[in-house]
Structures are given as C-alpha cells and as structure tokens.
Amino acid sequence: MLTQNEEQAVPTSRPESRLQVRSKIWLEIDGEPVFGQGRERLLRLVKATGSINAAAKEMGIPYRKAWTYIDAMEKRLGFALVTRLKGGAGGGASSLTPEALALLHKFDLLQAGFNEQVNGKFLELGF
Question: How many domains does the chain have?
Fold first, then answer.
C-alpha cells in the first residue's frame, strides 16, 4: 500500500505516453451501413483513377464487389454517385457526380469535427 506522499508522486498522465484514442464513424439508413471509410476510399480511388476497375484493384477487391458497393450506396441514398461511360476500344471511364463530391466533403467535415470532440474528451479525461 502506498502512503499519501507516495501516491502524490505517481503521475496521473504522461506526456510521453503512446496511448491514443481511435474512432470510426459511418452513416446508416434504417440501421444498415450505407457509407463509411471503406466506401469513402472506394469513391476517392474512382475519382483519382477515373475507373471503378482500377479503384477495385487498388483496394484488392473484385470489380463486381466494388460495383455492388457503389450500386447499393446509390440505391440507398437515392442519387447517383458515379457517372460511367461504357468501355470500347479505348476503355470506359468513371467520374464522381457533384452529389458524390459533396458527400465526400461533408464526410470529411464530419470526421474532423468528430475526431476533434473525441480527442478533446480523451485529453480531458487524462489518459
């Protein structure tokens, strides 16, 4: 058992501590996930590559799975996220709709605000 003087010598928090808080957020409709970090990454890769197929390869998932994610999000959200041009001799192309770009922007703002709140509470509690 520690005496009162020894208890006071025990630090309550250490600035050099490696303990960190992590959190994830996602959006749901009727209790079903519709948008989160994985699907956010997929849309960002479609934007960067101009291709659902290239985005799927970058994520290490089959094209069909990527397409299914996009299709499910569009149906659940009620608006298009990706504009697709069918392939041909030169191949197809995909781009994000203005609604998809707005969704990504709002999700960024939501994540930043959420992380700010969580980190503030983490520090307030003295971890």
Answer: 1
